Amino acid sequence: MTADIAESTTVRQTVEAATPGDEVDLTIDTYDWESPLDVVDTEPAVEWDVPYGDDWFVRTIFLKASRAQYAIQYSSIPDPERVECYRVTDGTPTEKRGDVEHLAPATTEADEDGFEDTDVDVALPDDVTPADVEDVVDEERASNGKAKLGDVADALGLTVGRARAVTHALDLYEDGIAEVYRPKAGGGR
User: Fold this and answer.
1) CB 132 within 8 A of CB 120
2) Residue 117: which H helix or E strand, with range?
3) How far apart are CA 157 and CA 155, in angstroms?
4) DSSP string of 88-100?
5) What pLDDT, in 10s, does the model give residues 144-168?
6) pTM over cut 0.90
């Protein structure tokens, strides 16, 4: 599934094409996620050929947000316009969260520096951009082999906890940031 087709993709097409590792934008009637959700699992599609009208199609995809998992259940029976979102508990869709209003492949746009614009689940100080964070992490990795969380925090003027949250939200944390830091006197932002 590619972001190039996001604008013209229907909910059914998104559900049909979804594979683990994809990112999707999701809006339900009760909530609009600002950041893309990760497709973490899918169930096989079930299809029936019918002698009249469109063939029937049913499939569930599982999505992960920062703090919860959700299941999108698509069924062209009885109403293909009604797609439901459920919260997932222990791998099973449980509590209905709402009806899907928008589901499409996630889109990103590269800015003039070549970095992709990324939604961050945590607020950044006004003078720090996602590109700044990526630059600092890359510089630390280049000079030390692995970026140290305390050094990243110092370079950005953030507390260690805030630097951890920001690097995690930008998918930089798991790729070689060491939990090595020294306490700062007086804290930071």
Assistant:
1) no
2) none
3) 6
4) EETTEEEEEEEEE
5) 777 887 888 888 888 777 777 777 7
6) no
